[in-house]
Design brief:
The complex is a heterotrimer of chains A (529), B (293) and C (334). Helices cover 29% and strands 21% of the residues of chain A. Chain A is built from 17 helices and 20 strands. Chain A has 529 residues and is of the alpha+beta class. Chain B has 293 residues and is mostly helical. Chain B is 74% helix and 0% strand. Chain B is built from eleven helices and no strands. Classes of the chains: A alpha+beta (529), B mainly alpha (293), C mainly alpha (334). Chains in contact: A-B, A-C, B-C. Chains A and C meet through helix 1, helix 4, strand 8, strand 10 and helix 8 of A and helix 2, helix 3, helix 5, helix 7 and helix 12 of C.
Chain lengths: 529, 293, 334
């Protein structure tokens, strides 16, 4: 049992790891994170928490430029795309070293075999690792890879060719996403031989700027700079994730300088943070939307007047003030204003209970009606407290005669039921993956959308977004999306609540940090003054 | 029978004298009385509706703090509801929770315990084994799982608490019934041809009542505490219901900025539970002179 | 004595089977789906969902899942977490020392304070000392500990800054988890301050978790002490003129502690319940925290295995207490 115990703390390079990170002149950066990673393999997971914990260790063929959505070389130095857009040839970087740990010392650097292994593991049933750790490559499937990929071939030790079944412009950006991580085939083979393949996903070996020293579940993840890293040396010698679930406690730790950066502050604490001159508050509009969806397949929400009445009955400003507390901007469209094709000409429904009442009367509901109002049981980036939002909406709706009952289910169950259309009104939202408007319009409101919470299927809207997805000219696409937003506004299947603003408090002496538009965290350039 | 009715007033007087000696118990009784008054008259006494949101008064502090006002003596919560009014209405809920849970588990537990004692054999073993199994799980954990099954809500939380407190009543009633069964008067009644049901409820039960009453009065406070813990974990009564534990759960993120949102519901729980505990202790001492010092 | 032990052991087997059955049935009644729960807002194709459910065996009839589970349990296999993909046993073993360390500290605190409180109250029965001590005890027993913990953090950590807010040790210290007990492991750290940090992190959770057993212990000690003080041999000892304090300590306390031991054993279940709340409040990386998480994530294997392990622990402790009680008090051996 004791032996099993030790395997948890990965002793990188034996005695070296025993040197305290506080040893003379060593620079430690402590980041207060929000939860334990599920494991150390991004392929298997979908949560930002896990991706953040893996990003110091692993790398992908291409990457996003620090603090931007631009795709840049990473493990692949350069690439070619065939004229028809179906063949991607990647030229791999030479002299990239793999990290090591107590049980594994690499004999070779990164090469094409590792790339092939990492994709085949997710793609092919026949790969011996496909079922290891329970399998389930959700993002790979979600990005349609099994349908998209035709073949992956090794042309030589440093050249890999991906062939697709059809042209796909976002494919390159997909390769920069966390699920497209490259693992070491040599390490995987060694573990398979030793009969403990699942350790590949618990004791990671990567090519990234930091290597894992120790992981204590629900407490800390400890990394140190990887001396063999091919890229620019990280500015700090040791990186620590202090896992702290409660945002109030994260702030207390930050103020005590027990950590130098803390994720997701309570909106309630923002004024305190701004007032503290030892702290610096970064912020950035989130790539997200929080909304209340009205199920158009259920009475009385099949009537557009009722949907418009609801949109006018709810005091959006009060929700923004009480729940988002400045950490959000009122939303009037499905996509956030930072995204191209955002239609700013649309005028949001005003807060006007009298007009709402009139519309209800026109719809034959002068006496109001009973409905349910679903609230997520969890905090989401786009909605910090759905139950509180629900209570505010409930009070507003009561004023125009709509008697709403707040309902909640376990999170997995909640989404399943929304998809099945059990609800009348349900709060939900979305966070973008790749910055393309298509990533909002299709999954949330198209006729084909499984997760589309209003169960709204409008021919006019659907034609517009389908057409937009097929053409490549961005200006032309933008026009179509702008029209689609007009239709959506008129039909009002959603009451848009807010696009949240993502805040990141840190100590004033933190330098070199840039927030990612996708919301992830990267520490290879961070430094302490 | 006639002898008993003559003895009764003096017995009650004796009981009261012995109970009144315990000043803590009397204090508990007084607090309980106040709570009952608050609960009954909540609609009259509360300044505001417990769910009315004053949109211009988010998180306003108690009256003695700077910025407080007499309109909201104990301040308001994050959506502008008056905390004092919510606490007053919460008293009603807490009493309902305590009463329902105790009634349910006392009734079911007593029936099960008496059945086990009277039936003996396989029935006895089966009932007591099941109770043992329930006791093996930490009660809060079991209650959480039960609520997870039935869905969060005040009614389900009460049911969960009632289930996890069942073994206590069952064991107690079985044990007292067993010792009563061995007594001569039971044998005599049985010989006289009384039915089992009559024997159970008319003869044996009244004589086991004292320990059960004590257990029930202490169970009252345990029920309030457990239901509040479930509320705190977001599994009990759902907002905007002014249940004290639920109020605490909603207050968590404000604890560095608005202490009053967190402090008052906690004090309300503490004082209520304390009152019932003191009362229960006094009751036990008075009912069971053996334990009295 | 041997017959007594055998009897106790024999009773454990049906209880154990019942416990596995109850935990299995309850947990499978919980609505929700671990696969759905981890998908976030992303949709999952129905065929993929079916494939994953098949892989974890969730598509089998419940009774077959139970038989399979029972078989695995008796082979010592508790399954693998759906979320982390680690074995349940491994996760339990890594987290349990944190809970044990906290529980032992809380219990020690409760005994060290509770027993003297009870003794003092018994010796000075009926005085103001008695009333105030017992008043404190009943207040402790009435404390909603989740709120108590938060108030302690608010006062001692946030306002006064005396104690750290949460966790087991400051994150700047690197401690190799040799034993899993921070108070032991910290001695092997290169940093001199590690142990001080570990101790300061333990103070508030210990007090919070120890409050309820403290109250119970104080009350039991007092009443059992009063019982003993009335016994003839104590009166005899007093009559012989031994110093009163020695009488109390040596003679009375030793006998008065027998019921206290029993109560300690019965407190283990309550302590685990308290640990769930305490660990949640103080972000203490232990078993309680882990179980609450597993409920939220619908991680059935963890919830099931974790509940079972805790139940086994409670059974074990109860057995231990029974045996100890049998040794201390031969009369109950029947």
């Amino acid at each position: 049992m004791i032996r099993r115990h030790f395997t948890r703390s990965v002793l990188v390079a034996g005695a070296l790891a025993m040197v305290s990170p506080l040893a003379a002149n060593a620079k430690t950066f402590v980041y207060c994170s929000e939860g334990s990673p599920e494991n150390f393999n991004p392929m298997l997971n979908t949560t930002g928490t896990t991706f953040d914990a893996n990003r110091p260790i692993y790398q992908q063929l291409v990457g996003f430029k620090y603090g931007s959505t631009e795709v840049v070389p990473n493990l692949a130095e350069k690439w070619e795309i065939s004229a028809d857009g179906t063949v991607f040839t990647f030229h791999l970087r030479h002299n990239v070293k793999w990290q090591s740990n107590k049980q594994f010392k690499p004999t070779r650097g990164f090469d094409a075999d590792d790339v092939i292994f990492s994709f085949e593991r997710q793609w092919k049933d026949s790969n011996p690792y496909h079922k290891v750790s329970g399998g389930g490559y959700d993002y790979f499937a979600d990005m349609d890879m099994p349908k998209l990929l035709k073949s992956i071939e090794k042309l030589d030790a440093y050249t890999v060719r991906f062939t697709l079944n059809q042209p796909n412009a976002p494919f390159l950006a997909d390769m920069a996403m966390d699920f497209a991580t490259i693992q070491s085939k040599e390490y995987a083979d060694a573990l398979m031989k030793a009969g403990k393949p699942e350790q590949l996903d618990q004791e990671p070996i990567g090519t990234g700027p930091f290597e894992l020293v120790q992981y204590v579940k629900d407490a800390t993840i400890r990394y140190r700079a990887f001396p063999g890293y091919w890229g620019p040396k990280p500015k700090v010698d040791a990186l620590v994730f202090a896992i702290t679930k409660d945002p109030a406690i994260r702030l207390a730790k930050l103020r005590a300088n027990e950590c130098q950066m803390a994720i997701e502050p309570n909106p309630a604490d923002l004024p305190t943070i701004r007032a503290d001159k030892n702290l610096h508050l970064m912020s950035q509009p989130g790539l997200n939307i929080g909304y209340l969806a009205m199920n158009v397949t259920k009475k009385p929400f099949d009537d557009v007047r009722v949907r418009q009445a609801v949109s006018m009955a709810i005091d959006k400003a009060a929700i923004l003030k009480a729940v988002y507390q400045g950490a959000g901007q009122p939303a009037k469209n499905l996509i956030p204003p930072t995204m191209w094709s955002y239609n700013d000409k649309i005028k949001d429904y005003p807060y006007d209970p009298a007009a709402a009442k009139k519309l209800l009367a026109e719809a034959g509901l002068a006496g109001g009606f009973d409905t349910d109002l679903w609230a997520m049981p969890v905090t989401r980036p786009y909605n910090p407290d759905a139950k509180r939002v629900g209570e505010l909406m409930q009070a507003d709706l009561a004023k125009v005669g709509i008697r709403a009952k707040i309902v909640s289910y376990e999170w997995g169950d909640y989404r399943k039921r929304v998809r099945a259309g059990d609800h009348q009104m349900a709060q939900l939202g979305w966070t973008g993956d790749n910055g393309d408007p298509d990533n909002f319009f299709v999954p949330l409101a198209s006729c084909s959308a499984q997760g589309g919470s209003p169960h709204w299927c409008n021919k006019e809207y659907d034609d517009l977004i389908t057409k937009a997805a097929k053409i490549t000219d961005q200006a032309a696409r933008a026009k179509l999306y702008e029209q689609a937003q007009v239709v959506m506004h008129r039909e009002a299947p959603f009451f848009f609540i807010a696009h949240s603003v993502v805040f990141l408090p840190m100590r004033a002496n933190v330098t070199g940090y840039k927030m990612s538009p996708f919301g992830g965290h990267r520490f290879d350039f961070v430094d302490l003054k | 029978m006639s002898a008993a009715s003559i003895a009764q007033p003096s017995r009650a007087a004796l009981f009261w004298r012995s109970f009144a000696e315990n000043r803590g118990a009397v204090a508990g009784l007084v607090v309980m009385g106040i709570l009952i008054v608050l609960a009954v008259l909540a609609d009259v006494l509360a300044l505001h509706s417990p769910i009315e949101q004053f949109r211009t008064h988010f998180l306003s502090p108690p009256v003695w703090e700077e910025g407080g006002s007499w309109a909201f003596p104990l301040g308001t919560d994050d959506v502008g509801r008056d905390i004092l009014s919510r606490l007053i209405h919460g008293a009603r809920l807490s009493l309902v929770i305590g009463f329902s849970v105790v009634t349910l588990s006392l009734t079911v537990g007593t029936v099960l315990g008496l059945t086990a004692a009277f039936a003996g054999g396989v029935v006895d073993v089966a009932i007591m084994r099941i109770m043992d199994i329930i006791l093996v799980f930490p009660s809060l954990l079991l209650a959480i799982v039960i609520v997870a099954i039935m869905g969060p809500g005040m009614f389900n939380a009460m049911l969960a608490v009632a289930i996890v407190t069942l073994p206590g009543y069952t064991r107690l009633s079985r044990a007292s019934a067993m010792s009563e069964l061995a007594r001569d008067y039971v044998t005599a009644t049985r010989a006289a041809g009384a039915s089992t049901r009559r024997l159970m409820f008319d003869t044996v039960l009244p004589n086991c009542l004292a320990p059960l009453i004590v257990q029930a009065s202490l169970g009252f406070s345990a029920a309030i505490l457990d239901a509040a813990a479930l509320g705190f974990l977001g599994l009990g009564a759902q907002a905007p219901t002014p249940e004290w534990g639920t109020m605490l759960a909603g207050a968590l993120q404000y604890y560095q900025r608005a202490w009053w949102v967190l402090a008052f519901p906690g004090f309300a729980i503490l004082f209520t539970v304390l009152a019932f505990n003191l009362f229960g202790d006094g009751l036990r001492d008075a009912l069971d002179p053996k334990l009295k010092r | 004595m041997l017959r007594f032990l055998l009897r106790r052991f024999a009773l454990i087997i049906p209880t154990f089977v019942g416990v596995t059955l109850l935990s299995f049935v309850l947990i499978h009644l919980v609505p929700g789906d671990p696969i759905e729960a981890r998908m976030g807002e992303h949709s999952i194709a129905p065929e993929r969902l079916a494939e994953l459910r098949h892989q974890f065996g969730y598509d089998q009839p419940l009774w077959r899942q139970f038989l399979r589970y029972e078989g695995e349990v008796f082979r010592g296999d508790l399954g693998q977490s759906v979320v982390t993909r680690e074995t349940v046993w491994h996760e339990f073993v890594t987290l349990f020392p944190a809970t044990l360390e906290l529980s032992v500290c809380a219990m020690t605190f409760a005994i060290l304070i509770g027993v003297p409180m009870g003794v003092a109250a018994a010796v000075r029965r009926g005085t103001a000392t008695d009333y105030s001590l017992m008043g404190t005890a009943v207040t402790g027993a009435s404390m909603p500990i989740f709120w108590w913990g938060l108030m302690m953090i608010l006062v001692f950590s946030v306002s006064l800054g005396w104690t750290p807010v949460s966790g087991r040790i400051s994150d700047t210290f690197y401690v190799e988890p040799w034993s899993g007990f921070m108070l032991i492991d910290c001695h092997f750290s290169d940093d001199a301050g590690a142990c001080r940090s570990a101790v300061s992190h333990l103070i508030l959770p210990t007090i919070v978790l120890g409050t309820i057993p403290l109250a119970t212990i104080a009350r039991i000690t007092r009443s059992s002490m009063l019982d003993v003080l009335h016994e003839d041999y104590i009166r005899t000892a007093q009559a012989k003129g031994l110093a009163a304090i020695r009488v109390v300590v040596v003679h009375a306390l030793r006998n008065a502690l027998i019921p206290v031991v029993t109560v300690l054993g019965l407190q283990v279940g309550a302590l685990m319940g308290g640990a769930i709340l305490t660990e949640t409040i103080f972000s203490w990386p232990g078993v309680g925290h882990w179980l609450i998480d597993s409920i939220q994530r619908r991680d059935y294997p963890v919830l099931q295995g974790g509940t079972l392990l805790i139940a086994v622990l409670v059974i074990g402790v109860n057995l231990g207490v029974d045996v100890l009680y049998g040794v201390l008090n031969p009369r109950i051996r029947r």
